[in-house]
Design a protein that fits this description.
It is found in: Cytoplasm. The longest helix has 14 residues, at about 135-150. This protein is about 25% helix and about 30% strand. The chain has 9 helices and 15 strands. By secondary structure, it is of the alpha/beta class. α3 (about 135-150) packs across α4 (about 165-175). It has 2 domains: about 10-135 and about 290-320, Alpha-Beta Complex (Quinone Oxidoreductase, Chain A, domain 1), CATH 3.90.180.10; about 145-270, 3-Layer(aba) Sandwich (Rossmann fold).
Amino acid sequence: MVDGDVPERMQAAAFDEFGGPEVITLRKLPIPQVADDEVLIKVLSAGVGVWDAYERQGVLVPEGSALPIVPGSDGAGTVTAAGRKVTDLVVGDLVYASATARPKGGFYAEYAAVKAQFVAKLPDGVPAEHAGAMSTDALTALAGLDTVSLSAGDWLLIFGASGGQGHLAVQLAKRQGLNVIAVASGADGVALVTRLGADVSLDGHGDLTDVLARIKDAAPAGVAAILAMASGKTLDRLTEALVDGGVVAYAHGVRPEPSERPGVVVRAYDGVANPRQLQRLNELIEAGPFVVHVAEKFPLGKVREAHKRLQTSYAGKLLLTVG
């Protein structure tokens, strides 16, 4: 099934060589053909993540990709064509996707062809534009919560809580009935996680003795687990608040990797995009108001500026507007 208005070529941001932000340029490329198990999405917006910078540098290049490469793992838009084996998505559906495997190119383009298993209908309560920045971080946050496997009423500490993954993890954890201590970056970060429902919001740049004292006041029996979106000496100190045998879970890519120590269990996790996880994510999102906090939006023509912004500090996510 195909929307008859699909053109033959599209505007895309792509690169022909690996390097810094300067290698990405706008050009006209053919619209990718859709296989039987894929959908073609007319892109409304695309998330900008550190993994996109790694791809640009040649570190995380999707298998099967050929130059010129169109980056972008996260995106949202409207289905304009569906392969004959696709049964749960139709032309006109508003969707979002997380596609780390995408040999035909990513979401830094007007159109993207993606396997239907990585695509979900947009849940109620999330603006379509903002959904473009949501999927990979939200699925990774959900995987982190699965990894710590806590029960309602347990105390969870989220370190790096105002970042892209962290601010979504705060909301998903609250939907699972957890008590959340959010350690964020700066006053703006603290204000964000407070607004998103954290039970205790703390500035990780503050005095760590005071931060630990406030954590222990809130959870005198100890914190059951830490979701670590960052690492280093601050995280090392925060593990003092864990119960004996408490878990530190971190997403692959966090450096330096948290280290095992007596009384602390360390586990790594990765986000998974499949129909089951996407359904679970949508059910949690639709349980109440859900915010994808966008720090800054860039038009597709300003993609280099967006990648430069990746190298700075900000709360939430960066977004490319396409459609």
